[in-house]
Amino acid sequence: MAKIEDRATRSKVAASGLNDDIGEEMRLRLFRSQVLLRQAEQRAFDLFLQNLVKGTSHLSLGQEAVAAGFGCAMKPGDLSFCTYRGHAHTLARGVPVEKVLGELMQRDNGLMRGKGGSMHLTSVEHGVMGSYAIIGAHLPIACGAAWRAQYKGHKDVSVCFFGDGTTNIGAFHESLNFAAVWKLPVIFVCENNLYMEYTPISDVTAVKHPAADRAAAYGLDRILIDGNDADAVYRSAMAAYEKARAGGGPSLIECLTYRYSGHSRADPAKYRPEGELEKWKERDPIKLYRERLKQFGIAESAVTAIETEVQRIVDAATEACKAAPMPSLDILTTDVYADGGFAWRN
Amino acid sequence: MAELTYRDAVARGIAQEMTRDPDVVFLGEDVGKAGGVFKATVGLYEQFGPLRVRDTPISEQAILGAAMGAAMTGLKPIAEIMFSDFFAVCFDYIANEFAKSRYMSNGQLKCPLVVRTGNGAGSRFGAQHSQSVENWCMMIPGLKVVAPSNPRDVIGLMAAAVRDPDPVIFFEHKSLYPTKGEVPDGEIVDRLGSAAIARPGKDATILALALMVPRALVAAERLKAEHGIDCEVVDVRSLVPLDTQTILGSVARTHRLFTVEENPRLCGWGAEIVSIVADEAFYDLDGPPVRITTPHIPLPAADILEDIALPTADRIVERVRRSMQA
């Protein structure tokens, strides 16, 4: 529980540092984004219980502040590289809820018409350059996209989101070194939710903070933030984007957070000590942000209006997906190769 | 027309494409200032500069992942993995990432890149620096796989690979680097998915790839001179796409099929081709198809052992003769 105490301390610091650098408009955006991610993923879980979401799914419930904070800090053209736990990061780029739920429900209206599934959400038009289900695989890929930006003189920045477990895989270390040596405009965002799949990250990691404590090895600043505070995430993201766009190279940001659900739909998360979940829920990112909005004098009616609007969007998306047809069978063999088909011989 | 080594053809092929298209970039271990451990990329760093020819750390996953990210977003990277054996440490990118991204994204993502690598035996390097692993890649949907046998094809197929919109695995044979061949002047652009009849013949078809092509040609000359057996040697060149028409056409003329494969026997590329011929040209055959391969073993380092592991001209001659005279 030491990490929670850490977080509480940091939270007090954050609270005492309240100021208006973010502004009401952005705060409402940050709130809306978190509410949207929460409601869409809760709906995904409900649909799973109704056997309408098939296969696996990995929810970010409780971790919404990270995806929302970065999503709001990005500019159009910035690129996101997500993991199999990528619904939130995809939605945070403005991808319609219907397209995401449609993919989870394997419908023809899904982002990839059911060909990718929950773990591979991709929407190039929104800058979501794929969700990757092999731990750590997308970190080098994000480096490559950043290399292209550097080579072509483009101003976009690539971000990759990953969990704490990724910090012990080789690709993590290869990428950090590579990005640091080449000074690439890429941001590595570790969502430390304390558990890999079932095993606590602290049981199997040589340092206390699996990402932040490794930053020095690559000449990077140690950045450890409260991942349940969307303002803290947003500020940290803005600073990293600014640095990357100015040619200052990569950032590695460890966000402390907690997932409410198990690793995947197959996991009831019985390995967690009693009371831990409840303790984290006291610092629920959306609850915390609602209070924040109140502190800034934003009217309750404006807040509930957002919640109602989001509810309506998620309901409408759900109905649209339920009504959507299954994909046509002809797509089984399309898009294996660039000619649109799967021919491997003449 | 000039005589060029296979090694120099690699550099010329890359230079041809980098000159044509400023989006072609090249990365790998020791490829720049050092000119490559096989000296196959000498001069590129000097000609195209450090922004386009980039030395990397020994980080194969970062090399292939970075090539993929760059390809997805508009560049045309050529990545070198020094020895094809090292594919095993970055196989996620080859098998899971760039082969599948187009399909999984329903066509949203593209991955036009080339991975070139030193493949094959003959250098007495032992089991982890000598393998022929083209069959590892052939079985993965989404990849294209080529393996040139001569300097002209190195340039032409390199150009085709770089210009191709799909990920292409480009197998250079380490033992062919010092070999020479005639190469035309000017731009050379070939076509993926086309086999070449390296030697016409009427009695039997011998299919070969990379280093096995010159060995099959030597064997064919001896079979003709010593045994009166006139073999057609087909250089397969491209495993994916596979030019089955040329192969089936040759078998229809000769009625006999032999494959000469450097890969270990199980699931070698010849097995797939024999299966195609059995399916589609069974009644063209006058005898059972025969696969001549490296045995199902890791490769040894000692020269006398490595030499008997790989198919040799002697072994090809003996196996074809025995089969044809049975």
Question: Which secondary structure elements does this structure contain, and how are they paired or packed?
Answer:
The complex is a heterodimer of chains A (346) and B (326).
Chain A lengths: L1 H15 L7 H26 L14 H10 L5 E5 L3 H5 L5 H8 L23 E5 L5 H15 L5 E6 L6 H13 L3 E7 L30 E4 L3 H16 L5 E6 L19 H7 L2 H11 L4 H24 L23
Parallel strand pairs in A: 1-2, 1-3, 3-4, 4-6, 5-6
Chain B lengths: L1 E4 H15 L3 E5 L15 H5 L4 E3 L4 H13 L3 E8 L7 H7 L3 H4 L9 E6 L14 H5 L5 E3 L4 H13 L4 E6 L6 E4 L12 E4 L4 E5 L3 H16 L3 E5 L2 E3 L3 H11 L2 E8 L4 H12 L9 E5 L8 H7 L3 H12 L2
Parallel strand pairs in B: 2-3, 2-4, 4-5, 5-7, 6-7, 10-11, 10-13, 13-14
Antiparallel strand pairs in B: 1-8, 6-12, 9-11
Helix pairs in contact in B: 1-7, 3-4, 8-12
Summarize the structure in short:
Chain A contains 11 helices and 6 strands. The radius of gyration of chain A is 20 Å and the shape is globular. Chain B has 2 domains: 182 residues, Thiamin diphosphate (ThDP)-binding fold, Pyr/PP domains (Rossmann fold, 3-Layer(aba) Sandwich); 129 residues, Rossmann fold (3-Layer(aba) Sandwich).
